[in-house]
Structures are given as C-alpha cells and as structure tokens.
Amino acid sequence: MSWIGTSPELPSIMLNAHTDVVPVFEEFWTHGPFDATKLENGDIIGRGTQDMKCVAIQYIEAVRNLIAQGVRLARTLHLTFVPDEEIGGHSGMELFVDHERFKALNIGFALDEGLANETDAFTVYYGERAPWWVRVKAVGRPGHGSRFVENTATEKLMRVIEKFLAFRQQQKSLLESGEAKTLGDVTTLNLTMLEGGVQFNIVPAEASAGFDIRIPPTVDLVEFEKQLGVWTSSEEGVTFEFVSKFENNQMTVLDDNNVWWKAFKTACDAQALTLVTEIFPAATDSRYIRQKSIPALGFSPINNTPILLHDHNEFLNEAVFVRGVTVYEHVLKSIGNVPPQ
C-alpha cells in the first residue's frame, strides 16, 4: 500500500509490519485469544495486540488521518505487510529485500516493530542481536544399559553443555550486576533441545543438543564462532553445526548526521515523549533491511504496558493504542518531509 509523495523521485519510507503471530494455548487465556475482547478498563486482549497487528493498524490509521487533514508529504510512504517473521522471515522479508519489486520502491528509511515499555517512556531500537541456532552433536561408545560404558556420547555432550552454560551464567551475571545495561547488550544462550537414545536399555551412540544464541552487534562474530569450536573440540567426537546463522549485523547510527533519526527524534520531542534507545534483544525483519544498508528503527508506540508478546493474555489498552496513532501522525509528517540530501 503506497501513499505517493509530492516528490516521488526521492528515496521513500517503508512502514513495515508482519502479519503472522505465534501459536496460542487457549487453556491459559482468560478470554478467547482471537476475540479481541475489550475489558471495562479498555484493555484489549488478543494475540497480536502487541506483536504486531497493533502497529500495522496504527500505520493505516495515521495515514488515513493525515490524508483527511489534507496533509501532503514530500516523500512516498510504502506500507508493507509481510509473512513468516515469527519463523525467521526466510520466506518473507529475507526474500523480499532481494526482489526487484523491493528495489523499485527506492527505500531510504524504514520503521518496523519494537517492544512495549512498562514505564512512561518509549523504546527505540537501532540494532538487534544476531540469532544463531546451533546443534552440538556427540558420538561415543554404545552399549547395554546395565554396564558402565566408557566414553559415551551423552557423557561427552554433558561436559560440553557445561561449558556452554558456564558462558551463559557469565553473561547473565553481567546483566544482573549492571555492567551490561540491557538484555540487548549481552549474549544470551539457552539450551532448547536435547535428542538421543532409542530405548531405555541401550546406551546411545549419538546424542545432540540445540542452543538458541543471540549475539549483540558489538561482539566479533568470527571470534565467537571460534569459541564454539574450542568448547566442542575439548571432547573427542563432538562437533557443532549451524541450523540458522545470521552474520550481517548492522546498526543504525543515532546522531545528527542521520537525518532520519534527527527527524524522528524531533517529532517525538515535540510531543514531549521520553525515548530510550536500545539493541533489540530478539530478532525482527529490520535486520534484513539494515543488511541492505538502509537505516531502520524498531518502534512500537506502546508505553505503560507490560511486555507480553508471545505470552498468554497478550493485551494493549485502547487509550495507549489510540495515542500511538497520534504519535505516528507526528512522526510521519516529520520523516516524510526530510529534505533531499
């Protein structure tokens, strides 16, 4: 969906939203997760109220209101609604940024999703951590479950897992001590999968563990991969492989030399909004946009709201939602009239 500007030859602005949501477990919800039930206090309960159907609707409403007010922007706005973000974006934005249709849009700047802020402030994300999914595989001696079999795959795997989890504790301590300010400043590592064995009385010849690792853009990815090799090579017969690996981890610079950030911040300052800038702790479609050297900000105009994306009873208050539309109106008028560079 496009709103053509008065100077359509200028680099345009992308307002991106993904349309997919994560699964629900209805037995844990107080109301139907797809009913959009509004409580007396204005809370709207439903999957996607924070992540991120809210933002998609706010884009549309903000543009509708500006058009009704007779506003014209110099730059063209493109509203994009893409699939598959929740499963990595591999069949969505990752493909789209290499498509001729994307190139024809002539994108100069993009807005995408952020997270709610539990305080009166609003959080803006200028980069995000690289998601790595790593499988560690161990091969060892099999045998009967009644014997003390030496050099088993599971023993080797456990010792390597301990090295991974020791690093996890180190990073967690950095956050808890305050040495690292936010979750986006540290590397999170979680053991998410364990596989091995065929039946109870057989010591398996193979066993594997899966890890979800999120690495800040301040970390040298080449050196971190070498560290994975050190941990796994400490045991004979243990190797690792990537199930998913994101390597181009660019950040959007936030200073006055970035005219897009300057325009965005000016619009927020005019509304007396308090902004907090962070590295996004998870992964969004923004990483594929930044990979093309296009500056992008992750921003959901949601404050005074607990972060409940992917959680049971996800909700957004009606008043917060409506205010977010107004926030976007100001932002779009500002970034949509950034002069030619």
TrEMBL record:
User: Is the keyword tRNA processing assigned to this protein?
Assistant: no
Pfam short name (any one): Peptidase_M20
One MF term in GO for this entry? aminoacylase activity
Q: Where does Zn(2+) 2 bind?
A: D51, E86, H310
User: Which residues are noted in the entry as Zn(2+) 1-binding?
Assistant: H18, D51, E113
The residues annotated as the active site are D20, E85
The name this protein goes by in its record:
N-acyl-aliphatic-L-amino acid amidohydrolase
Q: Which family does it belong to?
A: Belongs to the peptidase M20A family.
Under which EC number(s) is this enzyme classified? 3.5.1.14
Taxonomy, top ranks, is: Eukaryota, Filasterea, Capsaspora
Gene Ontology annotations for the cellular component aspect, listed alphabetically: cytoplasm
Q: What is its main location?
A: cytoplasm
On cofactor binding, the record's note says: Binds 2 Zn(2+) ions per subunit.
> Keywords of this protein's UniProt record, alphabetized?
Cytoplasm, Hydrolase, Metal-binding, Zinc
Q: Which organism does this sequence originate in?
A: Capsaspora owczarzaki (strain ATCC 30864)
GO terms of biological process kind:
amino acid metabolic process
- According to the entry, every stretch annotated as the Peptidase M20 dimerisation domain falls at 127-228
Query: Which cofactors are required for activity?
Result: Zn(2+)
